[in-house]
Design a protein that fits this description.
By secondary structure, this protein is an alpha/beta fold. The chain has eight helices and five strands, in the order βαβαααβαβααβα. It has one domain: P-loop containing nucleotide triphosphate hydrolases (Rossmann fold). It is globular. The structure holds shikimate-3-phosphate. Shikimate-3-phosphate binds next to α1.
């Protein structure tokens, strides 16, 4: 797999070295990135292009618990949400021919990173964008309630802490600023080599 050329992700932060760990025949593609990075928009389009299944990890958590993500945060707290997130990730990660969109905070949990890194044939793609773009996208998506975007200063601090984590974890980083979701799909397909379907 080739890697995507990196450009500066945020004017606030120095550019990081581009990820460069090849996956030769991915059976699953995991999309990571901050809230508003387009994981839940790009994911279904990418899955459709490949003829694969799409799983949104937040939707999977909601299905497993019978509660919405904001409900889990307000009724049980973020730590309880993170436990459900790890359980849901472990449950779905074995599936093949699947695109999985992680929640923006999932890679902060060490256990989740180990699960992702130790599952063979897993291509991890970081959909990156400057913080200002993420704010614009999250503001435009007024129907999506994100407890961890409520406080802009705290969200920016989370973004600064997570950007290097996403970058280290990913095999490929795609700078999505100025790209349509379809452009991002094309960029993923150009850089991730997927396992050909069984004859
Ligand atoms: C979170 C991101 C959300 C969701 C939860 C927490 C975060 O997912 O998992 O609200 O901490 O970044 P999206 O990245 O899909 O918005």
């Amino acid at each position: 797999m080739n890697t995507q050329t990196a450009t500066t992700t945020s004017a606030l932060m120095p550019p990081l070295r581009r990820p460069s760990r090849p996956v030769r025949a991915a059976s699953r593609i995991v999309l990571t990135g901050f809230m508003g990075s387009g994981k839940s928009t790009v994911g279904p389009l990418l899955a459709a292009e490949l003829g694969w299944t799409f799983i949104d990890l937040d939707a999977e958590i909601e299905r497993r618990t019978g509660l919405s993500v904001p409900q889990i945060f307000s009724e049980q707290g973020e730590a309880a949400f993170r436990k459900e997130e790890t359980a849901a990730l472990a449950a779905v990660l074995g599936r093949t021919r699947t695109v999985i969109a992680l929640g923006g905070g999932a890679p902060e949990t060490l256990g989740n990173r180990l699960l992702l890194e130790q599952t063979p044939a897993t291509a991890i793609v970081y959909l990156a964008a400057p913080f200002a773009t993420l704010v614009d996208r999250c503001t435009a998506q007024s129907t999506t309630i994100r407890p961890n975007f409520a406080d802009p200063a705290a969200a920016q601090a989370r973004f600064a802490a997570r950007h290097p984590i996403y970058n280290r974890l990913a095999h490929v980083r795609i700078e999505t600023d100025g790209l349509t979701p379809e452009d991002s799909v094309a960029a993923v397909l150009a850089t991730v080599a997927v396992k050909s379907s069984p004859a």
